Amino acid sequence: MMRLVAAVLALLTITPVDASHADGRGEGVHHRVTATILPSPGGAGGSHATGGEPAPVADLRIWVQISDHAIDSRFYGIVDTQFSNVDRTLGSAETLVWEDARCHRERGLPKIGLVRLEGTATVGNQTRPVFAAARMPGRRLPADEIVQRKNLGPSLPPTVMTIDAETISTGYAVRIRLQARACRL
């Protein structure tokens, strides 16, 4: 038994320790989440623009659920972002949804998902409400459901993950990007 303890202690003294992490300093990561309303593919918006009718315009609010946990930084919540006067044929500019309060140790990718989209859509002088939600266990299926696809494939840095979410009935599409930037702890 004493030989085993001596062998373990010898290995611990021989194994080099990464000094950058031993004192809590070194490379970390800073996450941010952005969102864009994508242009509608031909159908809902394109026919209006070519037929002389005014292009559909929407005022939308999205809710994004974020769970980002590290040893020295924790965030869990649902954050919302407003998109005003979005032309369905053009989409919207990229908007910041959430950003880490500080640099923290890398603990993998946060869990992110679009949970709700609501607002109004206007074509000419007709306005109609828009409401879509993601499926939730224990709740009824929404009339307009949000379907999401995550893409972890290659993308331009600093984007590490892209989520494309689309409403089934109304055809609104949202692209959510997770960006990870290296930083000093």
Structure description:
The protein is built from three helices and nine strands, in the order ααβαββββββββ. It has one domain (28-184). The strands form two sheets. It has a five-stranded antiparallel beta sheet, with no helix packed on it. A four-stranded antiparallel beta sheet has the order 3-2-5-6, with no helix packed on it. The protein has 185 residues and is mainly beta. Residues 11-23 and 43-49 have low confidence and may be disordered.
List the helices and strands and how they pair.
Layout: H1 2-14, H2 19-22, E1 27-38, H3 46-50, E2 57-69, E3 74-87, E4 95-99, E5 111-123, E6 126-133, E7 146-151, E8 159-167, E9 173-184
Antiparallel strand pairs: 1-4, 1-9, 2-3, 2-5, 5-6, 7-8, 8-9
Oligomer: single chain
Strand order of the largest sheet: 4-1-9-8-7
Structural class computed from helices and strand pairing = mainly beta
Q: Kindly give the count of domains.
A: 1
* C-alpha termini separation: 41 Å
Q: Over all CA atoms, what is the radius of gyration?
A: 23 Å
DSSP, total strands: 9
The number of helical runs is 3
Low-confidence stretches are 11-23, 43-49
Shape field: elongated
Residue fraction in strands:
over 45%
Question: What's the gist of this structure?
Answer:
This protein has 185 residues and is mostly beta strands. The protein has helices at 2-14, 19-22, 46-50; strands spanning 27-38, 57-69, 74-87, 95-99, 111-123, 126-133, 146-151, 159-167, 173-184.
Annotation keywords:
mainly beta; 185 residues; 3 helices; 50% strand; four-stranded antiparallel β-sheet
